[in-house]
Amino acid sequence: MQEFDHIQSLWQSHxxxxxxxxxxxxxxxxxxxxxxxxxxxxNILGMLLxxxxxxxxxxxxxxxxxxxxxxxxxxxxxxxxxxxxxxxDYRIIAKxxxxxxxxxxxxxxxxxxLNKFTIYTxxxxxxxxxxxxxxxxxxxEMLDNLNIWTQTGIIAFTILWMGLCATILRKAxxxxxxxxxxxxxxxxxxxxDQFKEGQ
Length: 199
Known about the structure:
Blueprint: H1 2-13, H2 22-60, H3 66-94, H4 102-142, H5 148-198
């Protein structure tokens, strides 16, 4: 029994420091940065497609009520503004070559993280409110042509979907993004430290 305790104490006191080279860390970071920028581009592309589809609907479908036009206009403006914000954030992370300027990229990454937090907290509620008001005005004319059960189903689905997006999906996405960006920041801080030690 004493031998086991002795082995256990040796095992616990022995710490292995895994040292990853800055080249390996940069290679891992490059993949993660590429993943973040690709996801950002897909978000922007999705917003642009939504914008184009709603503009086409407003231009080519004959609506009778001013409320429908007002609703679509509010939705279009909200999507356009949100797309511009997403593009500005994409530019923050894509403008530096992180292999040449890790410290500059690190500071940009921290700004990007802060902007993402703002987008998915404060700005999200402004966006969600604008989209909701736009849909309410849009559905005012559209639902009038449908029977009561279809109207109730569409309204219930819209409320449930907006609630799901505002709570569970948004929080899960925020948590996952925060973990990814935190890990990337940690890697770049280690890379910067290794460069300082090497000098």
